[in-house]
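Morning!

This is the sequence you dropped in the shared folder:
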Amino acid sequence: MNPWEKVTIARMAERPTSEDYMKLIFDDFMEFHGDRLFSDDKAIIGGIGLLDGMPVTVIGQQKGKTTKENIDRNFGMPHPEGYRKALRLMKQAEKFNRPIICFVDTPGAYCGLGAEERGQGEAIARNLYEMSMLKVPIISVVIGEGGSGGALALAVSDRVWMLENSIYSILSPEGFASILWKDSKRAKEAAEVMKITAEDLLELGIIEKIIEEPNGGAHNSLDEISCKLKQNFIVELKRLKKSNKEVLINNRYERYRKQTKTR
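The structure's back. Tokens below.
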């Protein structure tokens, strides 16, 4: 498939959400709510669960599957309180020495007036800063759209993976086309040059792994793709947990330094 076809699949209403994966991959998942500052942002869900008997903290950006659900979830675009809720759960995970797994699926952070008034930029920046120094293993997987800093706020990790038909970019193809060519209708053309597919980003060294999807997309076999993710999580976390905390942080730092130099 060409990049635009992958954009279309990544945005499908039928595509599995973070909540879908959490229910199948983790046992006894318990969702936590609120950032302890303002409110509970439904665009981000998070809590604790068991991965093959191992306690883990799980956080994900959540879209809806109907118009009503999408309005309730703000179409998967978090407010500052969503990122602060995520950070609260991450710091809790560090306190109790639990690995962190993040599911990335957002067009981008919400850019409305209220979000800006409550410090959207600061909330995202704080997540980037704090995640870089967390003393527990972190794995992030892009399951649909990975848009801009809104996605990166859950992706400063030891390992970043992508599902085969997901996308990860600094902004949407429509936004890229509007800025570069002053014509959002050239989004398909923009997708071709942006290097937003899993294959492009693996080649560039931005991600470490591509998780293959069933023919036609993850929505065609949720059980199959969930099983693949679960097995990959188990294997990789066992590997990461062997590193002491200082080595883990240093390796994470070098991972992003290397990407900066490459870019």
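Headline: The radius of gyration is 17 Å.

More detail when I'm at my desk.
O.
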